[in-house]
Every structure is written in C-alpha cells, then in structure tokens.
Amino acid sequence: MFVSAAVIGWVTTALVGHPFMGLTAFGAIALMGCVNAGAAYCQWRAVEISQSRTAVFTWADDLIAMGLGYAILSEQRYLTPTLVLGVVICVGCAVAMAFHKRAGSDEKSSRASPFALLGWVAAYSVIWGVAALVMRIYGLRATSIFWFATAWYTGAVLGALVIRYTSSEKEQGEPLTLKGLAGVFVLSTTIWAALALKYWASMLAPITVTQPVFQVSELVFPVLVGLFIFKEHQTLSHQGKLLLALATAGGIVIAFSY
C-alpha cells in the first residue's frame, strides 16, 4: 500500500512540476514517514484487539500534538476553558473505556487486552503527535503538498520493508491476489489523498484548531465501524456504550470550542 502511495506521489509531483524542496527537507520528511510506518503497524495491532476501544483513544495523538504546538510553536493563545473541558471528558472516558470489562468477554481477553491495547496505542499516539507537529512546521514553510506526500510515503516504504522482514511469517500473511492488489491501489489513493488534505489543513490553521476537528471524525466513524460492522456491540455493556457516548460528546465540545 505504501509503495503504491509513493508511486502516486512521484507521478503527481512530476505532473504538477513543483520545484524540489531540497535534500535536507526531503530526508527529514521521509524519516518521519518511515517512523510512521511503525505507527501504522502499532495501530493495526491495536485494532486487532478492539476496533471500537482503539477508536476511543483517538484523543491521545491529538493531545500530544496540541501540547507540542503549545510548547514549540507557542499556540497557547488558542487554549480556552471549553477546550479544557472537552479534553478532560475525552481523556476520562477513554481511560475508563480501555479498562472497562466487556460484557460476555472471556477471562483471558479481559486480563490481557487492556494492557496490550494501551501499549500499542501509546506507541502510535506519540509518533502521530510528533508527525502533526512536523506537518505544521513544514506547512508554515509552505512546502509543496505534492513533495511532502511524496517524501512521506517514500520513507514509509522503507519503514514497511523493515517491518516486513522483521515480522513473523504469520504476520506477513498470504500473497495478494490480483483482486487484492486492485483493492490495495484504491486504498493507496485514499491514504495519499488523506495525507495531502491533512497537510493542507496544517498549512491553513494551527494544530490547536485542526486537531480537535480531526478528533471528532477519528472518534465517531471508527467506533461505528467497530460496533456495527465488526459486531463489537454484542460484547459491549451498557456502561461501555455510555462511555463511548460521553467520549463522543467530549470530542464534539473540543471541535466547537473555537
């Protein structure tokens, strides 16, 4: 998938003809993309445990990104009491949800999942928080969207290769069929476009403004997928559903605090 996204990046960059950003900038962004491949792996492992619980933790990377924005880019002026309220709601519900025992889950899953989930989520949240800062920094420098995405996914290919050759045969899975490759190309186009749009948003507004908006979308839609497509609502108690609803409300409060 990252290979296809990188190819899309190189082709589109060649077509638009934007001037090269320079080797230093290209290398720095590619390095971030390489590390981000590891974050994607961590997210996949977290989703393997629980799609809906992982979705509730979407506040983590946003909170880290906002903190870095305050500390490094001096975005404190955007901090409001309403934002603090929304963050408190999301954090409280997310932590409670991670340790919440799902109705009908077996003893082994209840004992192992919360701590395994927290480990994977913590890893990719830190990486994505730093990635948001990197996007904003290069956005302020008006670095080309096309070159940014190209450098990012070129680095992601290298990271994916490292994961590919260090993971077990079981994790590597079966070779893709022709139909599977076609599906990967569609997904690659989607993730390339998503990165380009997110970087564009980073060019237009500070982290403190963009991340809360991402917070709501990242929270609501994956939760719905986990609950209704993967049928996780069958193992989620009424208390768990209440926590999900409160976390969603907290995300909405954050998004509309500006």
From TrEMBL:
* Chain ranges passing through the membrane: 20-42, 54-73, 79-100, 112-139, 145-166, 178-201, 213-230, 242-257
Reply yes or no: does the keyword Thylakoid apply.
Answer: no
Task: Look up the domain of life of the source.
Answer: Bacteria
Keyword list (alphabetical) reads: Membrane, Transmembrane, Transmembrane helix
The molecule here is called: EamA domain-containing protein
Q: Which organism is it from?
A: Candidatus Uhrbacteria bacterium RIFCSPLOWO2_02_FULL_53_10
